[in-house]
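Batch manifest, entry 17 of 40.
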Amino acid sequence: MKRKRFTEAQIVGFLKEAEAGVSIGDVCRKHGIGESTFYQWRSKYSGMDVSMLMQLKALQKENQRLKRMYADACMDRDLLKEVVEKKV
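Output type: structure tokens
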């Protein structure tokens, strides 16, 4: 897996810098990123600040945990169903 070069907080900082009036080309050159990368980040992180980003990450982690719990419960239910069917 490719290592991330910038944290989400840094990315939000780059976007805020561009919103403040610095041209996108200058921001990209200053931080060593491509303009296409900047536009992808802008579509993904536009309007967010660092606290909202942290909240989003926490929600995604909780969602992943709940999905795993649901999958485990379904597997247990199927296993118990098989055991009951074999006994009958």
